[in-house]
Design a protein that fits this description.
2 copies of one chain form a homodimer. Chain A has 13 helices and 7 strands. Chain A is α/β, with parallel strands linked by helices and 256 residues long. The complex binds adenosine-5'-triphosphate (ATP) (2 copies) and magnesium ion (MG) (2 copies).
C-alpha cells in the first residue's frame, strides 16, 4: 500500500524541505517509487531539484483549487523512481481562496486518492505554519514525520504540534499518527544538541529515529546546485545520514 | 519620534526572533526606550526573556482582537528600558478570527498609536509567513529590518518578500521602506556564506548592514536560560555583533 507522509513542523528552518528532498531521493535510490508534493509557497522543495515550473503548467496550487488533477501536476525529476508535484509562490493565495469552501481540509487527500497504488511513498513538504496548507497535508497523510532541529526554540514548539496532530486525528483523519521524530542539524561540538536530544528521547522514546542528521555544510550547498545532497556528494556525512534514515524507515515500516 | 520596525522574513529559522530579542536588548543597553512586540504564535520572543504569560493576562492576541489596549498587554522585562508585549499560542487563532473583520490589516497600527512617544524603538517579531499577522506588522511599521540567513534557500525567498513589502506600501502604508538587511549565521569556514553575502551586496548595496552576525553557539544556548545572549555571555562573538548592529542602526537612523 502507498504510505503517505507529511513532513511537518511549524518551527521554521528545522530541515523539513531538506528531509523531504533527501529522504525521498534515498528511498528512490533503493527502488521505491516516490512522489514528493511541495505544499510550501516558498517552493524550496521544487528548486531543490532545480525544477523551474513553466508558466501555465499546473502545480499543487491548481490541484488544491480543483483546477487540475494531481496526475496533471506531477512531473519527473532527474532521479529514477522519483517524481514531484511542484509549486510556485502562487500557492500562498490558496489559504484565503479556500477559507469558505466546502471540504477545504480534504482537498489534497481527495486529489491524491487516484494516485495511490502508483507510488510506494508520497512525502509532503509543509510550510512553517499550522494553517490550511499543513492541515491539508495532515488530512491527506497516514503518518507524520517530524524533523526536529537540536535547538531550544525548536524543542519548545513540539507540544503545540502534537496537540494539532491530535486535533486533526480526532476531527478529520483518524488514522493519522506520528511515525517518527528525526533529529536534525546535530552538532557534536556543542552541548545544546545533546541536551535537546536527551530531552526528546525522554519524551518520545522509541518514536525517535536512531539515525541523527548531523549539521553538514554539503547539505546546505547542494540546493544551490539544484540537486539533492545524495547527488551532489554521496560520500559526505549528510548523504550517509539520509541513506541510513531511509533504511531505518523501511525497517520500521516493515515491522508494522 | 518613535521608530516602529518589523523584523520580517517568511523564510523560517533565519534569526528573526534572535535579532528582535538581542537587538532590542542592545538598544536598551544604550538607554533607548524599547518595546518588543511578539507577533508570532510560537511565542519564542516571549520565552527568550523567560516570560510566562499568566492565565487571563492580555497578550498581542487580545490587542489584535480589540479586547485589550496595547498598554494593558505590555509588561516589563528584567532589562531596564526594555518592555515586551508577549504572546501565547492562542495568537494562531487571530488570522481566522479577523478574516472578515473591517480594517483587519490596521489592528496593530491602531492599537500601537497611543504608545508612540513612550518608546524610542518598537520592534515587532514576525512569524515565518506573509499572512495577516506579518501584514499587521508591516502596516504598523515605518521600516522593515530583514534578517537574512547566509544560505541558498533563504536567498531565494527575498524577492517575494520585497514584492510583498511593495504591495503593502502601495495599498496600506505608504511610508513603509526596507531599513536594512542583516546577514545572520555567517560561517567564515564555508564558501556558501561568502557566496550568499556577495550576492546580497550586489543586489542591495548600501541597504546591507556592515555588521554581520556570525554563527555562534552561545546565541542558541541563551534562550534555554530565558535570557538574551547579551545577558548570558556579553563577551561572546554573538553579543558583540548585536552590540555593533545596534550602534550601526543608531548611526544610520541619525543620518536620515
Ligand atoms: N543537516 C543540515 N546541515 C546543514 N545545513 C542544513 C541541514 N539541514 C538543513 N540545512 C540548511 O538549513 C536551512 C534550513 O533547512 P530547510 O530549509 O530544509 O528547513 P525547513 O524546515 O524546510 O525551513 P522552512 O521552515 O523555511 O520551510 C537550509 O538552508 C538548509 O540548506
Ligand atoms: N547567529 C546565530 N548563531 C547560532 N545560532 C543562531 C543564530 N541566530 C539564531 N540562531 C538559532 O537558530 C535558530 C533559529 O533562529 P530564530 O528562531 O531566531 O529564527 P526565526 O527566523 O525567528 O525562526 P522562525 O521562522 O521559526 O520564527 C534558533 O534556535 C536560534 O537560537
Ligand atoms: Mg521548507
Ligand atoms: Mg521566530
Amino acid at each position: 500500500p502507498t504510505r503517505v507522509m507529511a513532513i511537518a513542523n511549524q518551527k521554521g528552518g528545522v530541515g523539513k524541505t531538506t528531509t523531504t528532498v533527501n529522504l525521498g531521493t534515498a528511498l528512490a535510490a533503493v527502488h521505491r517509487r516516490v512522489l514528493l508534493i511541495d505544499l510550501d509557497p516558498q517552493a524550496n522543495g521544487t528548486t531543490g531539484f532545480g525544477i523551474q515550473v513553466e508558466p501555465g503548467r499546473p502545480t499543487s496550487y491548481e490541484v488544491l483549487l480543483g483546477e487540475a488533477s494531481a496526475a496533471q501536476a506531477v512531473v519527473p525529476t532527474a532521479i529514477p523512481n522519483l517524481s514531484i508535484m511542484p509549486t510556485t509562490v502562487n500557492l500562498a493565495g490558496a489559504e484565503t481562496e479556500l477559507v469558505d469552501q466546502p471540504l477545504r481540509e480534504y482537498r489534497l487527500r481527495n486529489a491524491v486518492q487516484p494516485l495511490l497504488g502508483e507510488y510506494d511513498y508520497i512525502l509532503i513538504d509543509c510550510p512553517p505554519a499550522l494553517g490550511l496548507l499543513t492541515i491539508n497535508a495532515l488530512v491527506a497523510a497516514d503518518k507524520v514525520l517530524v524533523p526536529l532541529q537540536c535547538e531550544y526554540y525548536a524543542l519548545e514548539g513540539i507540544s503545540h504540534l502534537i496537540r494539532t496532530i491530535e486535533r486533526i486525528k480526532n476531527n478529520f483523519n483518524e488514522r493519522l499518527d506520528i511515525q517518527g521524530i528525526v533529529l536534525t542539524m546535530y552538532d557534536r561540538r556543542n552541548n545544546l544538541s545533546e541536551m535537546v536530544a536527551d530531552e526528546v528521547y525522554r519524551h518520545f522514546g522509541a518514536k525517535v529515529y536512531d539515525t541523527v542528521i548531523p549539521r553538514n555544510v554539503r547539505i546546505s550547498e547542494a540546493p544551490s546546485h539544484g540537486k539533492p545532497v545524495l547527488l551532489y556528494d554521496v560520500n559526505c556525512a549528510g548523504s550517509q545520514a539520509y541513506i541510513h534514515l531511509a533504511s531505518e524507515m523501511l525497517r520500521r515500516d516493515s515491522e508494522l
